Every structure is written in C-alpha cells, then in structure tokens.
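Chapter summary example: a protein plus pyridoxal-5'-phosphate.
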Amino acid sequence: MQNLRDREKLAAWDKDYLWHPFTQMRDWLAEEPIIIERGEGVYLIDVDGNRYLDGIASMWTNVHGHNHPELNAALKSQLDKIAHSTLLGYSNIPAIQLAQKLVEITPKGLDKVFYSDNGSTAVEVALKMAFQYWQHQAQPQRKLFIHFDKAYHGDTVGAMSVGGIESFHNTYNSLLFKSIRVSAPETYRSSNVVDDSAETLKTRWLDTVEQTLSEHSEQVAGIILEPLVQGAGGMLIAPKGFLKELATLAKKWGTLLIVDEVMTGFGRTGKMWACEHENVTPDFLCTAKGLAAGYLPLAATLTTDEIYNAFLGEYRDLKTFFHGHTFTGNPLACAVALENIAIFERENLLDRLQTTIKHFQNQLQEFYTLPHVGDVRVCGMAAGIELMKNPDTYTPYPFEEKVGIQVCKAALAQGAVLRPLVNTIVLMPPLQISISELNSLLDRTYRAIDTVTK
Ligand code: PLP
C-alpha cells in the first residue's frame, strides 16, 4: 500500500459503498476492515503488510495456495488468447478440454458436463435437469426433492429450497418451492444425547428416507445431499456407508441422486471426490469452489448419458435444457481448472495429502484439552471444532454471545484468518499447506479458543 491515506480511503470507501455477504453490516461498520492486497502460498497479506494464514482457504476454495506460479502462468497464457467467448452457439478450447478431463477424473458413468459459475448454480442446474428429465420420461408428477436437515446447497432460490439451515433459510420460506426435509445424517449430537452407535443411527436415518420414499414414491424427483460431510450446517459428519446405502435406496425406488461436491470435491476429503470413498456414481455431481483452484468462479454439473439422452429430440419438441449463464464455460476459468488438475496429477497431490491429513487429524485431538471444546469433527482436510458453554451437559453458547466470531477475531490477532459457523470453528486450509504451516495454524487456533473461552 502506498501510504496511510490510501489505506484510510479504502476503508472509508468499503464502508460507504460495499455490502458484504452474510454480514450484519452494523457490526461491520463498527470495526476496521482487513483489506487483503496480496497472497503468497497459504498466506494472505493485507494493505498494512500483515500476514495471515488462510485457515479457510478463502471460503473453502483454494487448493494449491495463492499466487501460484503455474496457475498464474496458465491464466496469463489463456489471457493472451481470449478472455471470454460464449458457449451459447459456439465452443472454446479450454471448455472442451476441461469437460473431457472432468469426465475422466469423476466416478465412472458421469459422461456429460454442464458449466455454470458457482456452487449454487451448479445445484440449480442439477435440480432443473432432474425435474425436466421426469417430464421427458412422462412422469411430470415427480417434482419433489428429498433433502436433509442442516443441508446447505447455496443461496439461489432453488438451492435454498433444498437447504435446511433455519437461520439462513427461514426468512425466505414462503418464496421457496415445496420439498421434503428429512433429519440430517450426522452423529455428533445424537450420539451424545441419545446413547446410540453410529450404525444404529445410520439405520434410523435410512429408514426415515425409505419411509419418505415409500410415502411419495411417485412424486420424488430426486434426493440431494452433501456427501460425507455437511459443511455450512456445522461440519457434520455422516456415518460411514450412509452415502452408499442412500444411493442404493435411490436406485431401489427409481429416483435420482444429486451429490453436491461443491465443498467436498477436489481432494478436500482425501480423495478427489467424496463419492469415491463409498464407490458411488450419482446421477448428478455438482462441483465448484476448488474446481478452478480458488482462482475464478467456475462450476460444473456432471450427469450420465441416460439423463443427457432424455433431452434429445426434435427442435420443435422443446426438450432442450433451457438454462445457460452468460459466462458459462469461461475460457480463463477453464484454463486454470485444467492446470489445477494437472498439478494434482504432476505432484501426486492426493498421495502426498494422506500424510498431511493424518497429522491434521492427530493434532486436532489436542483441542479436547480445552474445557469448552465439545466436539472435534474432521473429514480429510476439513474440520469443525464445536465450542460449548458446558460440553458435559451439552449446553451450547447462546447465539447472541457470538463466541465463534470472538474466536475468529482472536485468531486474526494471532495471524490466522478463520470464519465460524455459529459456535463451530472451521479449519479448512489450502490442501498444499505444509506440516509446519499447519502446526502454526492449529497453534494459533488453539490459543484463540483458549483466550476467548477461558
Ligand atoms: N453447496 C455446498 C456444499 C456449499 O458448501 C456451497 C457453499 O459453501 C454451495 C453449494 C454454494 O456455493 P456458492 O457459494 O459458490 O454458490
């Protein structure tokens, strides 16, 4: 930053002109904003030159670190050719190459790629395709989607309609389409409150889904879920095998399975796709966040030939999929995504990641030595540390105490950028974080929790 006045001017303009997402702006206006100017690997650097470990991979997107030379080079090289041309009526080289690559690296059976710009739109595309597929199958009554409590699939109206987070979604309830919400496949609260094994819980949840399917067997268009871990709902881990058995149920009842890998995709769970842990090929797989390595907005919805073929027909039959965002298949974003995947392959990242994951998971156990840590949930390189007023009686901190926010502020003072999910502290660093950087992140987080909850 050139001088103090520039910094002050930016801070003032931020407050004068910007409306930040998911932010109570009155609180924002009362504080000095952190204004990021640069990135270096896992560090974010603000206009004052302060360095912060990016503990949330810039909202769960960053894979290989910021300002990565090879990703930068891929972007610049594409920029010298063309920044954007439309996929409506034309094609472009990176979009074609990336579609081929995505089909190659996703579970077998997913053969077609439909691009959009973000996680919410990737989900909208899957919902609309599933809905329209049934019309082409002469089953237009199949309009209902089964989704889970605490689910988060994005903020557009369709994605919210299959969401299950009360604080995010209740305000908009009357705007949303009808769907069927079933209880969430997570073990923490239930296993603590009701003394049950994960296996028993899994059976109970699956029974609920099957019961719902049997009651609405002719109306269900599809089931949508976040595989293995529900992110924004609080990093809630599903029991092992839940995804696989849910896929079996979807098949048994002849409905479609939409797997939202927006957060879990691109290595976050330790495999390229969460689906791979349980050998599942869904009817739709949605990916975004890590797809362009956290560089640019890009999303894709993959589906099967069977779904795709149902949309083929005469022009006049209107079987076309009437959907397409302006920047769909943007060449810059696709070029970066291709390089992202190339780095995974060149560097054997998924193999190397296993050591980091083991270390992460072991070190996280230390957090239980803090008296207000109720639960530490971890799946691959995604963790949630849930803070409780009294973990023994399972008494949460009151919402208005903003304990999660306070911890993140304390972490910032220690040089780590975090963002809470109410009272759950999320740790989701870029996958390429080194062991010593990871130790530093864990240490800063531990101290921040200790300071606030002491
Ligand atoms: N689906 C999941 C599982 C997510 O975690 C998110 C975002 O956090 C979304 C969808 C929405 O993605 P976006 O914010 O890019 O619209």
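Key point: The CA atoms of residues 52 and 415 lie 4 Å apart.
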